[in-house]
Design goal:
The chain is of the alpha/beta class. The chain contains twelve helices and twelve strands. Strand 4, helix 6 and strand 5 form a beta-alpha-beta unit. The structure holds pyridoxal-5'-phosphate.
Amino acid sequence: MTLPHINNSDRAAARGPESLAIHAGQQSDPTTGDVIPALHLSSTYVQDGIGNFRGGFEYGRSGNPTRTALERQLAAIERGAHAFSFSSGLAAEDALLRAVLRPGDEVLLGSDVYGGTFRLISRVLGPWGVNVRIVDFGNLAAVAAAIEARPPQVVWLETPSNPLLNISDILGVAALGRAAGAVVVVDNTFASPALQQPLVLGADVVVHSVTKYLGGHSDVVGGALVLNDDALAEKVRFLQFAVGAISGPHDAWLTTRGIKTLSVRMRRHSESALTLAEHLAAHPKVDRVFYPGLRDHPGHEVAARQMSAFGGVVSIALDTAANARRFAESTRLFTLAESLGGVESLVGYPDAMTHASVRGTELAVPPEVVRLSVGLETIEDLLDDVDQTLAGL
Ligand SMILES: *Cc1c(COP(=O)(O)O)cnc(C)c1O
């Protein structure tokens, strides 16, 4: 099976990251001159004789031109050879893990990864014989020791992590993992390729929840994998086709549209988040601010080396769990909701929301923590909102 290509003439002048985000995979239809590639809804494609496909398209699960346009755009912005689009971030993670792992294999997992990733590995793949070991990826010596003690098949890190914004040194971890023969996976959801490109730093695979910054407008649930190795790409392509957790055409089209403004959005998200983080760090009612852009963040130097800005998520710790809950329920511009990465600001209480599934495990989030996804509203309004909320505690 070959990947259908409809876009053989991406604009050759598009080389920089912003240009690639706008043009890669986005060829206009020669019959209409559409500047924006069409949304292809057809579930099946005419064959000019049995098995004689036009452009390689046969059936919507195996290929769709709108999805292909997105996959080419994703590969270009992550600087990878192959990209695959899925119906959710977790569907992408599942396809990758099943492509790589066999019963008895092990995943070495960061101690602060997205709760759903831990749930997938421990509760879905666990019964099929996959093991998981947790390590603090912020500590390279601990990672080296864990890998030496027993080489894992997969090394899985998330940086910045969700929700505590811990930073792992991608270059360092990737070198250790690859030397041990592991597949090194980076969940790049929080940074997005506009700020950080893990494949360039030596990772084997990048995972995304495109639901977050890539989609960027809280109107799509989707996931993606980007990687370079041809043999691994064939395994993932087979599972995408044979299991079928593909993104639908509407979702693929919306994601493509979101990605075109990724760079300007990430710059502004990062600017506003830094302003808010500095403001909160100086506030007497806030015990701690978790944001890698702050100089006293333990991962600041590594983050400054591997990211071009620090992203749009800021977490804070208040004095008590009760005040953290009250804060999350009292903001007026920050909307209380799951998810992050959209143009609108959101507030979440991880312990009982996004990370409820890891309560009581090594990955549990302290109950005093509140997570803020800093949107693109006027910064003064966001500062006023948190000030008024803190004043009411
Ligand atoms: C949301 C999220 C996921 C899961 O993605 P879905 O699209 O919700 O399936 C994975 N990793 C991170 C870091 C996330 O924030």
